[in-house]
Specification:
single chain, mainly beta, Immunoglobulin-like, 3 domains, 5-stranded antiparallel β-sheet, 4-stranded antiparallel β-sheet, 8% helix, 37% strand, Fibrobacter succinogenes major paralogous domain-containing protein
Length: 422
């Protein structure tokens, strides 16, 4: 009987000894990962028992290949001691399964918690919206779009699909569809589109492309304005002029009638879209006048031209208006002499009080590309260049002065154009 009791006592002491041995190392548990994204996540855990000595390090181990990760895999620390803890991990692979578990270390060694896993999110196509058009005119418009969400991946390309329809305002047959790229990246973007057909139905929708795919915004329909109904007026000199500025919606009803202001051309340039008052600005001068985009080309004050190599033949021609005539067929930009004779026929009257009813349409600064002086100053180009190659003649007048005067401006200035019959 004594032997039986001694055996029971020995077994009990052995079990107590084992429990005490187990409690030497800390104990931790692993909780579900949170805030899981395409390349990062937050890991969560808790040290529930420090064991026989204080926990001097705790954290997580993780791996996308080892289903039972250890400190020999990737590791992130998160403080010390007992209690709840968490840690954020980043630079993870997209759409990838990761195994992870908590760990804790005291003087007796390292202990791991239970193993869990999570799956990083995958890329999604971007979210893009199409805005309403702006600056709708006869032959041009500004398209607007916005990348609201990049889908977790870089925007590789963005832009617009522009559809032209046949048959005027009510056209229903598609004439053409073109893709217009406008850079990359997230955020708002716009593009001024020149050389459209007047009084024609168009539609556009913004698009964006990332590594996952391409997304389109809603389709927005618009119709360009009817072509200006240019009529003519005979001045006191007997010459025939257009009754309004190029790009104007109507004949001026006052000296500051904004609808009569029209476009602002850089001297010698064609109607490539730069003449629109809010066209984008470029600081890169060009070598040739052909094949330009629709940007207004700014020039530093010491140079003054939008061309690297000046050319004086672009508007300087009595027949056909020079190389880049912007006037309707049979009309051209007037010469300095023709402007001078007109001014002399006005006497002390302003350009608006003359038969041409010239409004104070402002100018566009050659250096900063800012439109200024609307309603206060007017400057109208002639086709006559100055001898220094980077300036050209025109006429100018203000709201406070009387009469008009021949003046000079650098060719990169944006100014009004009123056409004269050949």
């Amino acid at each position: 009987m004594k032997r039986w009791h001694l055996f029971i006592l020995y077994a009990s002491l052995l079990m107590i000894g084992c429990k005490q041995e187990e409690l030497k190392q800390p104990q931790s548990i692993t909780s579900d990962a949170t805030d899981i994204q395409i390349d990062k996540a937050t890991l969560n855990g808790e040290v529930v028992n420090e064991g026989s000595s204080a926990v001097k390090e705790r954290g997580f181990v993780f791996s996308n290949s080892n289903s039972l990760p250890t400190i020999n895999d990737s590791k992130v620390t998160s403080g010390m001691g007992k209690g709840i803890f968490n840690a954020s991990i980043s630079n993870l692979l997209v759409n990838t399964k990761y195994y992870f578990r908590s760990y804790s270390i005291n003087d007796q060694g390292i202990a791991y918690g239970n193993t869990l896993y999570f799956l990083t999110l995958d890329f999604i196509p971007p979210t893009v919206s199409t805005g309403e058009v702006q600056n709708l005119l006869f032959y041009s418009v500004t398209l607007n779009g916005s990348i609201i969400n990049d889908g977790g991946a870089s925007i590789l390309e963005r832009g617009f699909l522009l559809t032209e329809y046949d048959g005027g305002y009510d056209g229903s047959m598609v004439r053409s569809v073109i893709s217009i790229q406008v850079g990359s990246g997230i955020g708002d973007f716009l593009k001024s589109i020149p050389n459209l057909r007047s009084y024609t139905k168009y539609s556009h929708k913004a698009y964006a492309k990332n590594a996952k795919g391409i997304t389109y915004g809603k389709e927005v329909t618009f119709t360009t304005l009817p072509e200006p109904d240019y009529k003519t007026v005979v001045s006191a000199t007997g010459r025939i002029w257009l009754d309004k500025n190029l790009g104007a919606i109507n004949v001026s009803t006052s000296i500051s009638d904004t609808k009569s202001f029209g476009y602002l051309y850089q001297w010698g340039r064609s109607s490539d879209g730069h003449q629109i008052r809010d066209s984008p600005i470029s600081q890169s001068l060009v070598y040739a006048e052909y094949g330009l985009n629709n940007s207004f080309i700014s020039s530093n004050s010491s140079w003054g031209d939008w061309l690297i190599v000046p050319r004086n033949s672009l508007w300087n021609g009595l027949m056909n208006g020079g190389d880049n005539n912007v006037c309707p067929l049979g009309f051209r930009v007037p010469t300095t002499r023709e402007w001078k004779e007109e001014i002399e026929s006005w006497g002390s009257k302003s350009g608006y009080e003359s038969p041409l009813k010239l409004p104070l349409a402002g100018i566009r600064d050659s250096v900063k590309g800012i439109v200024q002086g609307e309603g206060n100053i007017g400057f109208y180009w002639s086709s006559t260049p100055y001898t220094n190659l980077t300036n050209a003649y025109g006429i100018g007048f203000t709201s406070i002065g009387t009469g008009a005067e021949i003046g000079l401006a650098v060719k990169a200035t944006g100014a009004s154009v009123r056409c004269i019959k050949e």
